[in-house]
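From the shared-data thread, chain only:
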Amino acid sequence: MLVMEPLGSFEQLVLFCVLRLREDAYGVPIREMLEAETGRTVSAGAIYTALARLEERGLVSSRIGEPTTGRAGRPPKHYRVEPAGASALLAAYSALQALAGDAIPELLRIAKGRT
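Structure, as tokens:
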């Protein structure tokens, strides 16, 4: 039985962005969504490194898009979540939910500064 290497937290975020963006999943929109949803500044290099790693592992696939009018440089590389990527993301999300269990009310209490 093949054991898949677990996803890192950044890889999970990138995969969720690719999933949500669907046919618009390429570097710039992925970065914009990640920054908007997490409040973190993310370098383009970090996005492309994660995408390359995910593609190497067969979790996403890519295709070269059509050149965009007014856009300099090469055409965008679009990404799609593959079944293995969906399975890995589901496993990671399920593990997080299982570990959190009934701890959410406690987290909220601590986050609000109540001891």
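The mean pLDDT is 90.
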